[in-house]
Amino acid sequence: MTALLEVKDIRCSYDHVPVIHGISLHVDEGETVAILGANGAGKSTLMRTIAGLMHPASGSITFEGREIGKTPASESIKHGISYVPEGRRLFSKLTVRENLELGAFSVTDKSVVAERLDEMYELFPILKSRSGQTAETMSGGEQQMCAIARGLMSKPKLILLDELSLGLQPSLVERVLATVAEIRRRGVTVLLVEQMVQEALEIADRGYVLQTGRVVHEGSSQELLDSEEVRRAYMGM
Q1: Among 144, 112, 116, 114, which residue's Cα sits nearest to residue 130?
Q2: Which tens digit of pLDDT belongs to each residue from 167-205?
Q3: What are phi and psi of 77, to 5 degrees?
Q4: Which end of the chain is less enclosed by CB atoms within 10 A, N or C?
Q5: What backbone phi and psi angles, to 5 degrees, belong to 8?
Q6: What is the 3-state secondary structure (H, E, C) of 195-208?
Q7: What is the pTM of this model?
């Protein structure tokens, strides 16, 4: 079986300083896979590289069997990869609807865009009632939902979700992470970066744990939850 996404021995640097040191992983169609680790482990760099916002110095990234390691982000979206970045990165002065429409920038048929808007309003009812509000007037949880919905507007085959819980009140984290399970039920494959290790593994099939730009643990979610080393190092147990 060919993986939907396959990353082989990639190495990445910022200003010639190595950040990722030979990471390999795969994501199969229909899976939810979690990328875990502390700050500075290289998680967001990995996601940005898969999304096409930066390119590996060596190694390969294939999506549906096609090499995309040097593909720019604008083309990756057309191939079916969508990236929801850390910190949401909404256009604060634009309305919710305008932010969502930007997620479908490559779609020229307005009726298709309207259909996708309706789908997002069904998935996130709060966004329908907030559609005319500017993004900056919403709560952190609502902004995160808007960011996820914008990422789904391109109808991706794979969505990259980077630190969904960042800056959210604990009461909202469960609600936002629950949407990941719903996204998967709708047929979208998910690669998730998250610092809340237990919560991420509870919704994922498998996981990879990064440390200083390397994979130090990998396995099924249950294997990682049962790992004494992972529990001690990342869950405070």
Answers
A1: 144
A2: 777 777 788 888 888 899 889 999 999 888 888 899 999
A3: -60, -40
A4: N
A5: -125, 110
A6: CCHHHHHHHCCEEE
A7: 0.90
